[in-house]
Write a structure and sequence with these properties.
The protein is an alpha+beta fold. It has 20 helices and 24 strands.
Length: 667
């Protein structure tokens, strides 16, 4: 019987390794930049054409290589960093496996020029698909100049899996940012299709952050540092008010190597407890310096994952360092006794006693519970109890928006407007729900003979739809009486249905409605725009600036009107009609950040991704108190949508509490 196991040729083995190391052009940029940093370069220039498909060129002024080293650098597992297995736990450099250059050479055409400063001549090597075509001595500058041409030229299937140029360029910019942030003492420049994207001078970390992300970050940077015998944490954190809804400006570096670590991110967010809006993530660039023997970075080909031998200690030290910075720089909100009704000394406009005063704050009647004249006269004290009772009734009713039994001291209000309501009950009156569109409440006229009639369903168009399909299997519950839709804590709506109670998440309902309206605007390209009285100038990162240019037509369809105004700057003249009232700068920047996150995580077309992102961004401002007509209009439009039960992201919008389930809560 013949043997069936054979050794693979080097060319095939290198292509297999390239499948892990070289996933896209950004992977090549990352590996070449790290090699230049390891070569102790002080200036690194990156030139990209067609998002790396045609050319990736990295020029540095590092130490260079000899002719033998230049040839050996393309061999598999050839490295200058490892001599024994013990060296794996003492690594402080970027590249050490010896896979990168061999893997890149297996799937691209490479041309490398390199020379050491002490040598008179340098070396030129040309490689195509692991085959060396040329090796000769040439005259060149000290350092290394490496060109990677026609990536995946010999693996067309891999080339077909690449995304559009805009998506691939955003990945390159992400890798460039990470290496540039980790090495602020090195000057970096980046060019794409002969256009300068970055020109970063060597300097301090704070200057590198401002040069990379914009001058607006100057006001939000706060230094963070904590030193212990086990680990040192240093870097900068952002103020809570600058937090964003997406996670794309959070950077961890362990021994100057970028890593992703959700556990440590949880520690940072926990240190901001009580200062961040719900669902927001703070900006931070944090460096962790630790003995290499306490970490293991050899667990992933891209080396972005890492293991600590004592993660709990690192977690605690990280949280303590950030919490200290939050406290030292007074990022947490200060105590405001004026807003606490239990410690008011003279109504809402009063002030707390000074620290030197001997007066002790005592609980008094809130300003909304007693009139100014009553509070100023001693004779008002005997009536305070009744007034407080009435005020508490009103406050409770406001909190849950449920009609409460009025106080006995205000019995006259029981009879106010009775005749007026009886007169209005036989008329039909139009109701508008803000931007949600008109809705009508159909109220039947009273019978002339006064005979007893059958119960009728009032109000919502949903009920009319359900009546037309009586007897069919309907997933949507039938609302019995939309006059009794109750709002709870400005977050949820409760509507009685025949089988129990329907609970609606208000923010998610708006998200579903807005998504369908934005998607229709993108599909029909007829989005209404609200012109700004004073156009806003918005500065963006190069990544978001490039993204906005790529999506200009789609953004215009939504209602955004903007023009270029210099490098990485737009002037916004109009915003979508449905987003009026928001901060235009935050809306535009957060939309681009959300789009960048969604396009990298989900396989969506531009219209769907943009409609989702803007709907999620805009729905947060609708967590507010709604009037009765607005509630009814919201429910009408929700159930008129294509899928009222779920948001575009698959989150449930409605939950049905059956009578049996409600009864079970009391057992």
């Amino acid at each position: 019987m013949l043997n069936v196991i054979q050794l693979l040729p080097d060319s095939i083995a290198n292509q297999i390794a390239a499948g892990e190391v070289v996933q896209r052009p950004a992977s090549v940029v990352k590996e070449l930049l790290e090699n230049s940093v390891d070569a102790k370069a002080k200036s690194i220039q990156v030139i990209i054409r067609e998002a790396g498909r045609n050319l990736i060129q990295v020029i540095d002024d590092g130490v260079g290589m000899t002719e033998t080293d230049a040839r050996m650098s393309f061999e598999r597992h050839a490295t200058s960093k490892i001599r024994s297995s013990d060296d794996l736990f003492r690594i402080k450099t970027m590249g050490f496996r010896g896979e990168a250059m061999a893997s890149i050479a297996a799937v691209a055409q490479i041309e490398m020029r390199t020379r050491r400063a002490d040598d008179e001549l340098g070396t030129l090597i040309r490689i195509e698909g692991s085959d060396i075509k040329t090796q000769e001595s040439i005259s060149c500058l000290p350092g290394t100049n490496l060109l990677v041409k026609n990536l995946f030229f010999n693996v067309p299937a891999r080339r077909n899996f690449l995304k559009s140029n805009s998506v691939e360029m955003r990945h390159i910019l992400d890798e460039f940012q990470r290496v540039a942030l980790a090495n602020p003492e090195v000057a970096f420049s980046l060019f794409h299709n002969d256009q300068e994207i970055y020109n970063l001078h060597a300097g301090k970390l704070s200057r590198r952050i401002i040069d990379m992300f914009g001058k607006s970050y100057r006001e939000q940077l706060n230094h963070c540092e904590e030193t212990t015998p086990y680990v040192t944490v240093r870097g900068y954190i952002g103020k809570p008010e600058s937090a964003r809804k997406t996670r794309n400006e959070q950077f961890f570096f362990v021994n100057n190597r970028f890593v992703k670590h959700n556990y440590l991110h949880h520690a940072v967010v926990g240190a901001y407890e009580g200062t961040l809006p719900e669902g927001s993530h703070p900006f931070y660039v944090l460096f962790i310096d630790i003995d290499p023997s306490h970490i293991d970075i050899n667990i992933h080909p891209t080396k972005t994952e890492i293991k600590f031998d004592d993660e709990r200690s690192v977690y605690a030290i990280m949280m303590a360092a950030v919490r200290k910075a939050v406290g030292v720089y007074n990022l947490t909100p200060s105590l405001d006794f004026d807003s606490d009704v239990n410690f008011l000394s003279g109504g809402r406009g009063g002030s707390a006693p000074k620290s030197g005063s001997s007066d002790v704050p005592k609980p008094v009647t809130p300003s909304w519970a007693v009139s100014s004249s009553a509070a100023s006269t001693p004779a008002a004290k005997p009536e305070r109890s009744a007034l407080q009772t009435n005020a508490l009734d009103q406050a409770t009713a406001h909190s849950f928006d449920v009609p409460r039994k009025p106080s006995v001291n205000n019995w006259q209000s029981l009879y106010e407007g009775v005749a007026k309501k009886e007169k209005e009950s036989v008329t039909e009156k139009p109701v508008t729900g803000d931007w949600l569109g008109p809705a009508k409440v159909q109220t039947p006229a009273l019978p002339e003979n006064g005979a007893e009639t059958e119960p009728v369903t009032l109000g919502s168009r949903v009920n009319q739809l359900q009546t037309e399909t009586t007897g069919a299997n309907q997933e949507t519950p039938i609302i019995v009486d939309d006059e009794n839709i109750v709002q709870v804590q400005n977050r949820y709506l409760l509507a009685p249905v025949r089988s129990g109670m329907l609970l609606i998440d208000q923010r998610r309902a708006y998200e579903r409605i807005l998504y369908e309206q934005f998607h229709a605007s993108l599909t029909k390209r007829n989005g209404a725009s609200q012109q700004l009285l004073f156009p806003k100038t918005i500065s963006l990162t190069p990544v978001d600036f490039q993204l906005a240019l790529d999506l200009r037509s789609e953004l215009n369809s939504l209602g955004f009107e903007f023009d270029e105004l210099g490098a990485n700057t737009f002037i916004v003249r109009g915003v979508p009609m449905l987003t009026t009232g928001e901060n235009e700068e935050e809306l535009f920047a957060n939309l681009l950040a959300q789009l960048r996150l969604d396009t990298g995580r989900l396989k969506l077309d531009k219209a769907d991704s943009m409609a989702r992102s803007l709907a999620r961004r805009s729905s947060t401002r609708h967590v507010t108190r709604l009037s009765t007509p607005e509630r009814k209009a919201l429910v009408d439009q929700l159930f008129a949508s294509s899928n009222p039960s779920y948001t575009p992201g698959g989150e449930p919008v409605t939950v049905l509490l059956s009578l049996d389930k409600i009864a079970g809560l009391f057992r």
